[in-house]
Design goal:
Distance between the termini: 21 Å
Number of strands: 5
Structural class: alpha+beta
Radius of gyration: 13 Å
Shape: globular
């Protein structure tokens, strides 16, 4: 694994620990390309983590993006009954305003 990717995952793990007071173990990376009315509203990599010690969730989905004028923003979505995949996590984040839309991470492959 590249050092940049390892640093990125470490930042996400620390954010999960801070937000939810539990440890997170990286499980996988999933590419998500969300389209609405034939336009890309989000494209990027979602990191899936297994949670250790969380009272309600066993997994979460996390990613970071550059918020215009505000630096890096980390989005964490806990796995729940209706949010049980990386794609649904992105949709929920957009719907609830945690992720700007439309948004495409500039470092993502098409």
């Amino acid at each position: 694994m590249k050092a940049d990717k390892l640093d990125y995952l470490t930042r996400l793990q620390f954010a999960i620990l801070q937000a939810h007071d539990c440890d997170a173990v990286h499980n996988q990376t999933v590419h998500v390309h969300e389209i609405f009315e034939e336009k890309t509203v989000w494209k990027g990599e979602v990191e899936v983590f297994d949670l250790e010690g969380h009272a309600e969730a066993k997994k979460c989905y996390a990613w970071a993006y550059e918020a215009k004028g505000h630096g890096e923003k980390i989005v964490i979505v806990l796995e729940k009954q209706l949010v049980n995949s990386p794609r649904l996590a992105v949709k929920a984040a957009i719907y609830f305003g945690a992720q700007q839309a439309p948004h495409t991470r500039p470092d993502s492959q098409a």
